[in-house]
Specification:
- It contains nine helices and 13 strands.
- It has 228 residues and is an alpha/beta fold.
- It has two domains: 121 residues, 3-Layer(aba) Sandwich (Rossmann fold); 98 residues, Arc Repressor Mutant, subunit A (Orthogonal Bundle), CATH 1.10.10.
- The strands form four sheets. Strands 2-1-3-6-7 form a five-stranded parallel beta sheet, sandwiched between helices.
């Protein structure tokens, strides 16, 4: 399941967009402000972002510019009531991948998000790697050499968060947000159960990577020490 970040401060419109995207199979996290969205983007690896320009704490372009400056290439569909040519050019020059003026038809927004997700694989980092692991987001599978195993949606997003950090520690709260969405109510041991399943799958594909618990800090991928 692709995870989408929606940054829109108009409550009714945001609810309609969230319903429209969720109804077609997307997982949607919703933020009202630039600072909230930036925090979400540091915790979750999103497949696309729908971004409004007019937000309570500034122009959505500032978020996009900061995101691109940090090297993140999450595809972005810009929403705005500003439909003049120079506004569209400004948004595209800032790093937006598409631009949809308000008002718009929900079917068109959904179609444009789908189009963003059909971009060439190499531009969307659909095959992140770390050590001997290759994560195939398109097929929801984890591979080590010729051996592959299927992942459940939550497991996929957990591995995506771990692999893209390349051995750095990821907070427990960030893994929960990645797996089930920001603010989602999950049972206290849901992450532990998911990690247990992933660890078994790492063994099944004979990977030399393991998920280690940095007590009090979070989790990270580490290469298992070879047997003497």
């Amino acid at each position: 399941m692709s995870r989408i970040l929606l940054v829109e401060d108009h409550d009714r419109l945001a609810a309609l967009i969230q319903k429209g995207l969720s109804g077609t199979g997307f997982g949607v996290d919703m933020c009202l402000r630039i600072d909230q969205a930036w925090s979400a983007l540091q915790q979750v690896h999103y497949q696309a972002m729908v971004l409004d320009r007019g937000l309570p704490d500034g122009d959505g372009l500032t978020l996009l510019l900061r995101l691109r400056a940090s090297g993140q290439r999450v595809p972005c569909l810009m929403l705005t009531a500003r439909d003049a040519l120079h506004d569209r050019v400004e948004g595209l020059d800032a790093g937006a991948d598409d631009y949809l003026p308000k008002p718009f038809a929900m079917d068109e927004l959904v179609a444009r998000v789908r189009a963003l997700l059909r971009r060439p694989v190499e531009l969307r980092s659909e095959h992140p790697q770390h050590g001997d692991l290759l994560l195939r987001v398109d097929t929801q599978s984890l591979c080590s050499g010729p051996e592959c195993v299927s992942l459940a949606p939550a497991e996929l997003h957990i591995m995506l968060a771990l692999i893209t950090k390349r051995g750095e520690t990821v907070r427990r709260s960030a893994l929960e947000a990645a797996a089930w969405g920001i603010g989602s109510a999950v049972t206290p041991n849901a992450l532990d159960v998911a990690l247990h399943r992933i660890r078994r799958k790492l063994i099944a594909i004979d990977s030399n990577q393991k998920i280690v618990n940095a007590r009090g800090l979070g989790y990270a991928l580490r290469q298992d020490a070879p047997t003497p």
